[in-house]
Write a structure and sequence with these properties.
homoheptamer, SH3 type barrels, 5-stranded antiparallel sheet, about 10% helix, about 50% strand
């Protein structure tokens, strides 16, 4: 397998900026929208994001900055 | 997409000083007001801030310094 | 807006030493009194402080050192 | 026993990229799939992953990045 | 106000070694006794210390080393 | 007592690789098996490990990597 | 008071290796036995240790390595 296909997690994350993701936080709430940018701490800017709890939309955000230490996982666009 | 439009989260946050934001903390309480300043740890000064719990105003603050490690997310002005 | 009016949070905090503040900790207890000093970790010395829980005074402290990692926010004097 | 057979945990983990693993997080949820990559913080990319709770599949992920600090343990392929 | 009267929290703490203090930990238990020594992490040695819960003495310690990260606050001698 | 007999904890831990241990995690679950390797963060590889809860075997693992920050203690072979 | 009698906490802790201690962890469980060694993170090796919960012996350990971040306090031999 080529090295190219085995990117480190943070490199892959960085390459997915401007794409749609779902971010689940430790408090089980999810944010679904465009990941406008992200840094190595997983601080991230979401735009046009829906806030979901138990799969229901409970709020909408034009632009929100999530503090990275709260992130449980980030589901990438190929899934959405 | 130009590099200019893809600012890192902390740069974007810094550019939003003096604008209105809503800060949600890990304990689910929110602070809505002007983000007078912020540092890279997400310590921030809020002025003329309302404290909200379950969308109800429960207190008002002329000027308050929030310790960054408590921050869940910061909703930027374009939403408000 | 001038740079002077946009101090970083820790600089503003430092400038408020010897003034009255209310410090809320993560355990929801508050300390109201003079912030005798503070460092960049938000360790702080409070003098002549009241300890409040649910807005009731439950104890008084002549001088107490609070460990910074417990701090939720610090409300500055202009509010009091 | 040869030094070769006694790899440090993070070296062993790195050698298992592209293999199937089960990752259990601190919140007791498990992710079973291919570990596409991993870094020294245990941030990892899972592909074609099932999310399991109490041994039941509750969701499927094409590609998901798990933040390393949430990891409890990673079960390696020889078990699966 | 002179600089002398505005010591940083850790300097003030250090100057109070060999004096009586009450240390409250995050688990709400308190230790009342002589602070034999302390370091910048707030690790501290207490001697002839009473352990208090809800203001009742529940144990006595000739000499105990408390790990600093558990400390909520330290009440200084002038109060006791 | 000679210096040789007073090894630092991480040195002693390292010398016990390839021996049987019981690792208890903060969530009270235990892993009993061979500690194939360990690093200074207490990340460790267990092989042929039983997972125990309340002293009952609830799962078996051929090879599992435990993230060190979850470790409560490691019981060494001389006990087993 | 001489400088000699005012050792820093970690120095005092180090001088108590090979002596009996009681270690209380954050989960309220205690370990009573000989502190065979300890490092500056408070990782420690206990030998011939009893595990106590609510003052009752619930297990015995020939040799156990406790991860330092779990430590609440360490009661030194002069008390035992």
């Amino acid at each position: 397998m080529s090295q190219t296909s085995a990117k480190r997690p943070l490199t892959t994350l960085q390459k997915n900026t401007k794409k749609n993701v779902i971010v689940r936080l430790k408090n089980e709430v999810e944010y679904k929208g465009k990941m406008d940018n992200v840094d190595s701490y997983m601080n991230l800017i979401m735009t046009d994001a829906e806030e979901l709890k138990d799969d229901k939309v409970i709020a909408n955000y034009g632009r929100v900055i999530v503090r990275g230490n709260n992130v449980l996982f980030i589901k990438l666009e190929s899934d959405l």
